[in-house]
Amino acid sequence: MSFNMDDIFSDAKRYVGIVGEKTGSAVEYSRKQVSRVQLRVQFREKLTELGRLCYDMHEQNIDRTGEMKKLIEEMEDIEATIKEAENAVGVAKVCPLCGTKNKASNAYCSKCGERLDR
Ligand SMILES: [Zn+2]
Questions:
Q1: Which residues constitute the domain of residue 23?
Q2: For 61-117, how does the pLDDT look when each residue is reduced to its tens digit (9 = 90+)?
Q3: Ligand 1 centroid to 89 CA: how many Å?
Q4: Would you say residue 117 lies in a domain?
């Protein structure tokens, strides 16, 4: 299994929680959260493809480095877009314990200290 389903579900949970707030900015925020989920799915699909190319290259002794480089560049673009989305909303991690919105860069909740897993 190449997907980290926990990550996807935790994003989905955040989305559901945020939609409940019903304010304009919260709706905007949740939209960005959803697009981040989609971007992460895209990223993982490319990661899987990258792994397959690497495996093929090894098993069949065919040079796939050109395709691999292209994939890595696409993945870097996706990463940059995710970062942009995180910066645009200013907060990207909602504490699972107390619901405080934390900065994307925070590893722990600024209010209660709970670990903010990605
Ligand atoms: Zn907290």
A1: 5-90
A2: 889 999 999 999 999 999 888 877 776 666 568 899 999 888 877 889 999 999 987
A3: 18
A4: no
